[in-house]
Hints:
Blueprint: H1 4-14, H2 24-35, H3 40-50, H4 54-63, E1 75-80, H5 83-88, H6 90-101, E2 107-108, E3 114-119, E4 131-133, E5 136-138, H7 143-152
Parallel strand pairs: 1-3
Antiparallel strand pairs: 1-4, 2-3, 4-5
Amino acid sequence: MLSAEEREEIEAELQRYPDRQAVCIDALLIVQRHRGWVSDEAVRDIAEALAMSPAEVDAVATFYNRVFRRPVGRHVIFLCDSVSCWIMGYGRVRAQLAARLGIGFGETSADGRFTLLPAPCLGACDHAPAMMIDDTLHGDLDPERLDALLDRYS
């Protein structure tokens, strides 16, 4: 069941659009901001609130890589795997992240601190290799910089 606060925020978004379905992405992100991820139950509740089918809401949720359909760590790392990042050291960064955090793509560290996900492109080719932790973009990564960045997210 959507919380009163989630429902209120979704209702506020509905005022901005002529069509209830247009609020789908915003509603998913509202729920995710409150819960950390979007469960099947939340998909059904959002569908009901927006007069959509759960399959329609799930299709939107699974299309966008920033909507998490299962629990994630406190911080989500999106590692850019574009051609520019591949050329500029993506492999070293990915290997270091895997070694340091003990996880691969789609996994969460044992301490629940980080989830590692691939990103098709972060638009930071001039600062490749790049990654985003939560909503902050980090570029020009090298082993020393990467360790320092991870330490900041403890």
